[in-house]
Specification:
By secondary structure, this protein is of the alpha/beta class. It is about 40% helix and about 15% strand. The protein is built from 4 helices and 4 strands. The chain has helices at about 30-50, 65-75, 110-125, 130-145, and strands at about 20-25, 50-55, 85-90, 95-100. A 4-stranded mixed sheet has the order 1-2-3-4, sandwiched between helices. Helix 1 (about 30-50) runs parallel beside helix 4 (about 130-145) and helix 3 (about 110-125) runs antiparallel to helix 4 (about 130-145). It is globular. The chain starts with about 20 loop residues before the first strand and ends with a helix.
Length: about 150
């Protein structure tokens, strides 16, 4: 299939790069909340060996946020994602996505992820409280995973 010069395609798009436990590409999280969540995530990882990352994005473009988050997950260059969780907040759509690696999918299955988003993350997110949504998600994920 030919693509006209200048036409957009997913292959041309540069996906956000995950750079550490918190990558605030969307500029949504205050520095004090970043510091607090970084400590929570670091402590959890040292005790459990589960790698949880938070990524904020301005939006998902023309894609559904969950599809966009899945593409970020697939592009993430991490040796062992099976014990990892990607938590993404989208500014424009005011939605969240959580993707868990295969070893963590029993503790964070689709039903529990959807319940966490609906019951803990969505209310502050819809109100524009990105700090509150991020902290609720981080605490919810860490709580669900345990040690």
């Amino acid at each position: 299939m030919a693509v006209a010069p200048g036409a957009w395609s997913q292959a041309d798009e540069v996906l956000p790069q995950i750079k550490g436990r918190i990558t605030d590409q969307g500029g949504l999280i205050s520095s004090s909340q970043k510091h607090l969540m970084y400590q929570v995530l670091a402590q959890h990882e040292s005790g459990s060996h589960h790698h949880v990352v938070l990524l904020t994005a301005k939006g998902a473009g023309a894609e559904l946020p969950q599809v966009y988050a899945k593409r970020i997950w697939q592009a993430w260059q991490r040796k062992d994602k099976s014990r990892s969780v990607l938590f993404v907040l989208f500014k424009q759509q005011k939605v969240a996505a959580i993707i868990a690696g295969s070893e963590l999918s029993k503790k964070l299955d689709v039903i529990s992820i959807n319940a966490m988003i609906d019951n803990e993350i969505s209310t502050p997110l819809k109100a524009g409280d990105f700090d509150g949504a991020a902290l609720a998600g981080v605490k919810g994920i860490v709580g669900a995973l345990g040690h």
